[in-house]
Amino acid sequence: MPEGSVITEEMRKAIGVESPAGPETEIEKGHIRRFAEAIGDSNILFTDEEKARNTTKYGGIIAPPTFFRSCTGGGGGQRIDVRAITGLTRALDGGSDWEYFEPVRPGDRISVTTKIVDFQERDGRMGKMLITYTQSTYRNQFGKVVATQTTSGILY
């Protein structure tokens, strides 16, 4: 079990370092429809081009919010092995917060960058815990941010 703080200078230097963009994901109408079917969402915005075109403000189908999980991520900012540095080996997913700014349509090309935005340390029942906050930024082919995802991971 680690003694003292588990947050090192190397980890502090990694905060805010954005990765290069991962490869672009081209958004395809069929992929949107299959994704919506897979998650059990029958909303016409994601499944019916004609109805979405004629009855919604979007003028056609758009990708569901959780669709971004299918886009390839960036390199993770500065690559550091937090588990090796801290000696903490057990991990939990602490959840994600999403912000959406623009609809994503068939034909859009989405690139993703990531960065570590913070580390927080806590004492838990099983000893030291490290909470890592990582932000993924999703941009379309015009460079517009269409969504951000801030994820927390817990090591103990």
List the helices and strands and how they pair.
Layout: H1 9-14, E1 25-26, H2 29-38, H3 44-47, H4 49-55, H5 82-86, E2 91-100, E3 109-124, E4 127-139, E5 145-155
Antiparallel strand pairs: 1-3, 2-5, 3-4, 4-5
What does this protein structure show overall?
- It is a single chain.
- The chain has helices at residues 9-14, 29-38, 44-47, 49-55, 82-86, and strands at residues 25-26, 91-100, 109-124, 127-139, 145-155.
- Strand 4 (127-139) and strand 5 form a beta hairpin.
- The protein has a five-stranded antiparallel β-sheet.
- The protein is 21% helix and 33% strand.
- The chain is built from five helices and five strands; from the N terminus they run αβααααββββ.
- It is of the alpha+beta class.
- It is elongated and about 60 Å long.
- The longest helix has 10 residues, at 29-38.
Which outline best applies? elongated
Strand content: 25-35%
The proportion of residues forming helix, as a percent range, comes to 10-25%
Mean pLDDT rating: 91
Helix/strand order: HEHHHHEEEE
Strand order, largest beta sheet: 1-3-4-5-2
- The termini sit apart by 9 Å
Task: Count the beta strands.
Answer: 5
Biggest sheet architecture: 5 strands, antiparallel
Judged by helices, strands and strand pairing, the structural class is: alpha+beta
Radius of gyration computed on alpha carbons: 19 Å
The low-confidence parts are: none
SS field, number of helical segments: 5
